[in-house]
């Protein structure tokens, strides 16, 4: 049994997830790929190529690529502020936060906020974000912020005069060849289950796991994309090809280079525009990815990591929050799978 399949089979035996998929490759070669498990612990339905995985925060870098495409077209600049595009933020402590700070999680807007617990409508949730006190001045620290990416999505919509789902489709998923990726799923039956959610009182399957995204009720910048294994492979190949997708360019060479350049090395965590970099200690990217590697995690158990120097990627898709998010097993497993993947890709 190949190493990655063995690692994931053993992890499923320990009930780290009910389903997993993986792929290791380059722009023109797939070194390893596969699917295993069932769409839910209570189901005998095996995951297939058509299965849709809740990508969770892997949505963020996809939205970031759409934003950078708007920068390439002159619709936005990285130094535009929130108030430039969202007038309701004028006069607030967030008015002067720049797009580059939203992309690098240095905005100071608090993250990990369960706003859905008291904000029951879209307007209430957006008002709650507007009222959140900043953690500190913009640019002073890396503080992961889904709330910042919600605002980033709103800025992109306002600047381009189009909804986020249209922007992502036209500027990222379509040229990248990600034909099965979108906000939501065509049929709940093809979705991989996530959490038995106390807030909803049921197992979530076929709708976004992120509760703040549920309250927003529309495509959001921080979470909500579903995709297939083949789609994440297509994204990995596009990134290894420096922004050139199967059906067209997602980003120019200049846009791609700007996207992956480290922006926060003077701070505690390495961030690029929309992506997480490789930290020197305890990086979830593993031990064998190059120093300029980048990637992103999804809370549901998904991830994509790219080594631009070697031109290789590792995709891991799981439903590790099923049936509960109180499951830490994915942490070390992510590192071991990435190690196995980048070792394989290096020959």
Automatic annotation (TrEMBL):
<dbReference type="Pfam" id="PF00144">
    <property type="entry name" value="Beta-lactamase"/>
</dbReference>
<keyword id="KW-0378">Hydrolase</keyword>
<dbReference type="GO" id="GO:0016787">
    <property type="term" value="F:hydrolase activity"/>
</dbReference>
<protein>
    <submittedName>
        <fullName>CubicO group peptidase (Beta-lactamase class C family)</fullName>
    </submittedName>
</protein>
<dbReference type="InterPro" id="IPR001466">
    <property type="entry name" value="Beta-lactam-related"/>
</dbReference>
<dbReference type="InterPro" id="IPR012338">
    <property type="entry name" value="Beta-lactam/transpept-like"/>
</dbReference>
<feature type="domain" description="Beta-lactamase-related">
    <location>
        <begin position="6"/>
        <end position="332"/>
    </location>
</feature>
<dbReference type="InterPro" id="IPR050789">
    <property type="entry name" value="Diverse_Enzym_Activities"/>
</dbReference>
